[in-house]
Amino acid sequence: MNIIDILSPDCIESAVGVSSKKRVLEKLGGLITTHNPELSEDEIFESLVSRERLGSTGIGHGVAIPHGRVKTGGKSVGCFMQLENSIDFDAIDGKPVDLVFGLLVPENSTDEHLQILATLANLFSNEAICDKLRQAASAEELHTIITNWQATTD
């Protein structure tokens, strides 16, 4: 599974100014629907919030991977945000989050969902990559970092 297959360059934003977990989830919904109009912002937000109620998707080390399932849309979709300032995300290590990868999968895509989450966990467990993502100055640079990481793991 290639992250680039689900993450288009126009679904990446740098230095995003948000002040709370709720605002991050709302922003993810807006970013995804801008480029995937068949999806509803409300449906995305509700899916992400429902998943967060089960436990935080803050995986530690300043990273969160909010994810959910949607009834509409036939493909998995990702988006990535580098936050301007770290925010509390109830992460498992208690540290604030500044790197967020949002993921939506079709309602019945269990195997694909797990495979994508494993790939993302692998990406974000690489401290050097996370440091580069934090230092990137543009969405284009963020895309290049993720693309180059993916190329070295294939």
Task: Describe this entry's structure for a reader.
- The protein is an alpha/beta fold and 154 residues long.
- It has a single domain (3-153), classed as 3-Layer(aba) Sandwich (Mannitol-specific EII, Chain A), CATH 3.40.930.
- The protein has helices at residues 21-35, 41-54, 110-124, 127-135, 139-153; strands at residues 12-16, 58-60, 63-64, 67-70, 77-87, 97-106.
- Strands 1, 2, 3, 4, 5 and 6 form a 6-stranded mixed beta sheet that branches.
- A hairpin with a 2-residue loop joins β2 (58-60) and β3 (63-64).
- The protein is globular, with a radius of gyration of 14 Å.
- It starts with 11 loop residues before the first strand and ends with a helix.
Concise structural overview:
This protein is α/β, with parallel strands linked by helices. The chain is 44% helix and 23% strand. It has a single domain (3-153), classed as Mannitol-specific EII, Chain A, CATH 3.40.930.
